[in-house]
Amino acid sequence: MEHITLLIGIVIVTALVFDFTNGFHDTANAMATTISTGALKPKTAVAMSAALNLVGAFLSVEVAKTISGGIIDEGAGIRPEVIFAGLVGAIVWNLLTWLAGLPSSSSHALFGGLIGATLVSVGIGGVNADAVVMKVLIPAVAAPIVAGIAATAATRLTYRLARNRAEEDSAKGYRAGQIASAALVSLAHGTNDAQKTMGVITLALITGGVLAPQADPPLWVIASAGIAIALGTYLGGWRIIRTMGKGITDIQPPQGFAAQTGAAVTILASSHLGFALSTTQVCSGAVMGSGLGRKGGVVRWSTAGRMVIAWGLTLPAAALVAAGAAFLAGQGTWGVTTVAVLGVAICGAIWAASRRKPVDHSNVNDVAPAESAAPAGVVTAALQSVAPPPAGSTTAGAGTIEGIPAQSTTRSPATSAVR
C-alpha cells in the first residue's frame, strides 16, 4: 500500500504538470486575437486569462466526470502506473506541438495517452468505445465546424451593422468587446480544460482505492488543477499565440470579437453537456471562420491544413508514446523510474531547442524573416510540414519544403483590409 500511495502521488504531480502545459499551450485560445489586434498588452492579457481560468475551474465538474468514469473503465483493472504512462504521452506531444507553434489539442493528447496506455495494460476492454465516439470523436469533428460557421456569420453581421460608422470609432468599441469576449473564453476554458486534469487525478484516486467509484473530485483536486492551469496560462504559449494571431488570417477587431464570442458559446455549451472537446480546435475554427466572414479577408489554408494534420495526429501519436511508456511502467519500479527519467530528458531537450529562437511577450507580434532557401533534409522537411509559416508571411503552399522560400511581407492596415 505504501508503494501504491507513493505512485499515486507521482501520478498527481504528473497530472498537474500536464495541466500546466495545457495552460500555456492553450493561452492562445482566449488571447491570440486580443493580443494581435492590440486590444490588450500581452502580459495584461495572459494575466487576465489566468485569473479567469482559475475561476472557471470551480464552476462545473461534468467534464471531470466524463474523464474519471467515462472514457476509461475504472473497474477494468486500471492501475496508477497506467495513468502515469498516459500523462507522459500527453505531455510529450503537448511540448512537441508547442515547439512547432502548432495549436494542437491538449484534450486529445490526454485522451490518446490514456487510451494507448490502457490498451497495452488491460486490453481493449478497458476503453469505453461508445463514450470515446460520442464524447470525443464526434465533438472533435463537429465543434470546429460549428464554431467556424458561427464566427463567419457573426463577422458578416458585425461588419454589416458597422458599415455606416467610422472605422476608428467602431474599432474602439470592438476592442472593448474583444476584451469582454476574451474574458468569456478564458472562463469557458477553465470550465472545460481544467476539469480534464481533475478527472485524471480523481481516476488515479479511485484506482488506488482512495475514493469510491463514480466519486466527484474533492475540493483540493479542483483547487490544485485550477491553480496549475492558471500558472501555465500566465506564462503564455507565445509561439502558439503568434500562429493563432498572425499565421491563420489577418485579424481586425470586429473579427476578433466575433471569433471569440462564437468560441465561448460553443465551449460553454459543451461543458454543460459534459463534452470534453478541444478548446483549441474550437478557437482555431472560429478564427478561420472570421477570416472567411470579412469581405476581402484571407485564410492561409497552408497553415490551416498543417493544423488539421496535427489535430489528426494528436490522439494516435500521444497514444503511441503512452503505449511504450505503459509497457515500461508495467515492468515494475525500475520501469516507472525509467519512464520518469526519459520523460524529463525529452522535455528538457524540447525546452533547450525552444531557446534557440525564443518567442515571448516582447516579440509575439513581430514579423519573422523569410525562411532560408537552402534545400531541406528529410528531418527538416518533416518538421516543416507541420510547422506554421512565419508570422505575417503569405505562402501559396509548402514552398519551404521544396526549397522555395516563403515571401514575407509587412502590410499596412489598409493593405490588410483590401486582402
TrEMBL record:
<feature type="compositionally biased region" description="Low complexity">
    <location>
        <begin position="392"/>
        <end position="406"/>
    </location>
</feature>
<keyword id="KW-0472">Membrane</keyword>
<feature type="transmembrane region" description="Helical">
    <location>
        <begin position="83"/>
        <end position="102"/>
    </location>
</feature>
<keyword id="KW-1133">Transmembrane helix</keyword>
<feature type="transmembrane region" description="Helical">
    <location>
        <begin position="308"/>
        <end position="328"/>
    </location>
</feature>
<feature type="transmembrane region" description="Helical">
    <location>
        <begin position="109"/>
        <end position="127"/>
    </location>
</feature>
<feature type="transmembrane region" description="Helical">
    <location>
        <begin position="45"/>
        <end position="63"/>
    </location>
</feature>
<comment type="similarity">
    <text>Belongs to the inorganic phosphate transporter (PiT) (TC 2.A.20) family.</text>
</comment>
<keyword id="KW-0813">Transport</keyword>
<feature type="transmembrane region" description="Helical">
    <location>
        <begin position="334"/>
        <end position="353"/>
    </location>
</feature>
<protein>
    <recommendedName>
        <fullName>Phosphate transporter</fullName>
    </recommendedName>
</protein>
<keyword id="KW-0592">Phosphate transport</keyword>
<feature type="transmembrane region" description="Helical">
    <location>
        <begin position="219"/>
        <end position="238"/>
    </location>
</feature>
<feature type="transmembrane region" description="Helical">
    <location>
        <begin position="6"/>
        <end position="24"/>
    </location>
</feature>
<feature type="region of interest" description="Disordered">
    <location>
        <begin position="387"/>
        <end position="419"/>
    </location>
</feature>
<feature type="transmembrane region" description="Helical">
    <location>
        <begin position="133"/>
        <end position="155"/>
    </location>
</feature>
<keyword id="KW-0812">Transmembrane</keyword>
<dbReference type="Pfam" id="PF01384">
    <property type="entry name" value="PHO4"/>
</dbReference>
<feature type="compositionally biased region" description="Polar residues">
    <location>
        <begin position="407"/>
        <end position="419"/>
    </location>
</feature>
<dbReference type="InterPro" id="IPR001204">
    <property type="entry name" value="Phos_transporter"/>
</dbReference>
